[in-house]
Predict the 3D structure of the following.
Amino acid sequence: MARPKVGYVIFDMDGAPGHLLSFSLPDVELRPAGLLIDTESVYTKVTNEILAPYGAEMTWDIKAGLMGKLERDAAAHLLSFFPDIPLTIDSYLSQRTARQDTYWPTVQPLPGVRKLVSHLHAHGIPIAVATASQKRNVLLKTAHLQDIFGLFGDRIVCADDVRGKTTGKPDPYIFLYTARQKLGRRVGEGEGDGVMEEEREERAKGLVFEDAIAGFEAGKRAGMSAIWVPDTNLLNVEYSGAHTPDQILKSIEVFRPEEWGLPPYPENDASAN
């Protein structure tokens, strides 16, 4: 199947905090959760540690609805499932932040990430990150991984950069903002009939990598192509949205750049993941 030639690439980072459609991914194997770095297991562990004293647990059906949301919106969504628990949004977030901060400096990149980001950078392909994480958390998660995240330069957009302008994914705002402000692409703003034809053409050159349902929805609503790299638990989450990803991968490790008009990896490339 012919795919559009990609002119720039935008990555989510880690699905920070669903709808019925069945996605099938043959021969899938369990993988750590997240997109560029393995942080989703931390989100789950810490949240369930906080909920455990109340006999509650965050299931994947609940978690799917948190991914891509801005921090307070995600917390409100989570706590709405446990109305009898005496936790406010602020108290939950305070406990969560303190616990998570001890884990962030130890998270590692997921398979294939180092290879792909380095490859795109080496070939001059414009790249950026658009994440719902706060800037302070991004710095904690990436300070020890500058061989990867240093390649993005200042082209990392966090929740702080778009606060007050979006409710979070699946709103496409953060992807359009990133393309426009960080990559200099003339993609315009908004959706629908108000988007000019040349802006639609520029949007179509973008490729989004996401691990969240709301994330690939946002990429598609932005007029870009979207690759979904889900935690396998998300494959069974109900989804009835209007948008589907252009490609589903079990890992960035199996991505083939040439399928998207990007330079192929060198033959017999033995570079680190």
